[in-house]
Amino acid sequence: CADKEDPKKHKSKVKSKVVCGYPISIFFIVVNEFCERFSYYGMRAVLVLYFKYFLLWDDDLSTSIYHTFVALCYLTPILGAIVADSWLGKFKTIIYLSIVYAIGQVAMAVSAIHDITDSDRNGTPNNMTFHVVLSMVGLFLIALGTGGIKPCVAAFGGDQFSEHQDKQRRTFFSVFYLCINGGSLLSTIITPILRAQDCGIYSQQKCYSLAFGVPAALMVVALAVFIIGSGMYYKPEPQGNIMLEVCKCIGFAVKNRYRHRSKKYPKRQHWMDWAEEKYDKLLIAQIKMVLKVLFLYIPLPMFWTLFDQKMDSAGHHHGWTLCKSADKTKHGLIVIQPDQMQTVNPILILTLVPIMDSIIYPLIKKCGFNFTPLKRMTVGMIMAAIAFVCAALVQMEIDKTLPTFPSKSENQLKLLNMGTNPVTVTLPGLDPVNLTAAQASDEFFPFETENITVSVGSFKVTKMISMTKGLRQTLLIPLDISDEWLLVSDTHKIKKAKTDKFINGMDTPVNVSTPAADFGQIEPFYYSNYTKIKNGETTFTLQSGSQSCKYSAEFGFGSSYTYFIPSTLIFGPNCQESITVSENIKPNSVHLALQIPQYFFITAGEVMFSVTGLEFSYSQAPSNMKAVLQAGWLFTVAIGNFIVLIVAELAKLPKQWTEYILFASLLVAVCIIFSIMAYFYTYIDPAEIEAQFKKDNEDDEDDQSKLQKQEVEMTKKDSIESHREGKQTRM
């Protein structure tokens, strides 16, 4: 240890290398964070699609694995923090775990590659076990890497500032958060575009290898940038296995307190003071600091519960998946699709963070209001609650435009006359329904029984129809009434696109296709499956043998239609008028702009809560536990993810807006509790406390040394006196 540099000396050297008042090392850390976040969010943006369309997993398995991965990413910071503060130090921990991280990203990219020997004729991998195993190993390494470095990078950046640069440190945490969202914004735009490219052996094989490969390359860049700045960093040394020491100290304090629980022992100011018999007072004081902050963290997961709901990229049903129910927005030539609304959050953050730091906070300070970090976090929680109230109001508007779907105990039936003659249909409990040739009924008729009797009066035919409860179905009345009557299940809910179904009433097969989708060949008097198509203007090509025609229409977002090809269809330019269109679900009429207030409030809340929380966690942590407290902050995010699943499953509320109100109410209640806890919290300067303890120890040592010297002097004096007295006696 003799060759170690004096930290104060090193810190003064770092302080001399400044650009615009900031240590130059900060710029390498900021660029590293931007590239790393691009890598993480870029990979995550296409992860569920990779599970569903490359690994061919169902929705439930895809969503479960996705949530497990995200939860793991927020649990591993504890491991990274322990390693950094106790063993390797933050710098080496970031280096080693970034290598693990990069290997994981490369593994994901390789898992999405297959050649002609590894594919069937549809471009689907045959050796699926290899791809599944490699992708799971890759995801585990990514979770270990991204989670492990997460608490270290922010804390390591904070270490670069001297004790007199509090303002610059606060700005750093804001810029740090900007980089997180800048990387997130670019990656969520770019990576899906890369995925959509056709780079497989077959045209239907999307380019997941490229979508994972670019994030892998960015992670390598992030690692390289961080290493390049190595010589400019201040690298505080780890101070032994601090977590083990902390646990032992807490355990001894609890045990000692229990052992001396009788009244004859005097009470101590804090229960941790019972460890003074065995442990250093400085360590006990540091543990007290950490416990105070961790206690304050207890209500915080509720904020992340709401925040993580707003944009569930895995398509979980509790999120702000309003894109399934809100119409697109068009401004001139620019069309904003509902699924692009997720970019509003990072865009607003990039705007609001500098506005808050340079205008709002200074203005509040000038007004004489002491807007402390905990007050900012409280206001941030209130903002998030307001955002969900706004979301509930928008959802109420959306619900007004949605059709009434059948409950689990009901059925709904629509009629379609496939014949060339008018028919009159009698349904139980309803007035007769008159249908002209190739016409569908205007509405779905509700029934509570599974079996109903249907009579076609014009042909005097009665049939028993067995329906499935909880579904909307269409009854196809054939051209020849004695033929089989078909029941077609209709789409229940629309998520991200309009859906269409074709029914072929001709006696020859018809092939239906669009530039974006292929319905395939539809057999005579049969129907196709529903096919999702992007909203907007669509041109269908109908082909039967050598004959063809085109049918064009523009449809709104979230709509569902059934097209009937009549037996009288004549191919050619006039077929547009011959096809019957039946509207199952109307296009959404709620404007996307209604979502802007809720995104504004949730983002303002995030800026005030999350950015402030990062800086607060660092400023209130002892020097040897910076990363551990950052990990504690991130752990609240993981707990928030679990609360989403638990509360939503327990509540099982029938309406989406009531769920939003429930979570907003819970957050307000938690906010009140947090504000009370914050009121009694006393801000500290850990460095000052540590310095005072060290000074006191030095003073104690000096006093001890003086006492020892005095004892030695007294001993010498006594010895001389004794010698003299002995001499006099002999004389």
TrEMBL record:
Residues 695-731 are annotated as: Disordered. It comes from Anabas testudineus. One of its GO terms (cellular component) is apical plasma membrane. One of its GO terms (molecular function) is symporter activity. The lineage of its organism: Eukaryota, Metazoa, Chordata, Craniata, Vertebrata. It comes from the Eukaryota. PROSITE patterns: PTR2_1, PTR2_2. Gene3D superfamilies: MFS general substrate transporter like domains (1.20.1250.20). It is found in: Apical cell membrane; Cell membrane; Membrane. This is Solute carrier family 15 member 1.
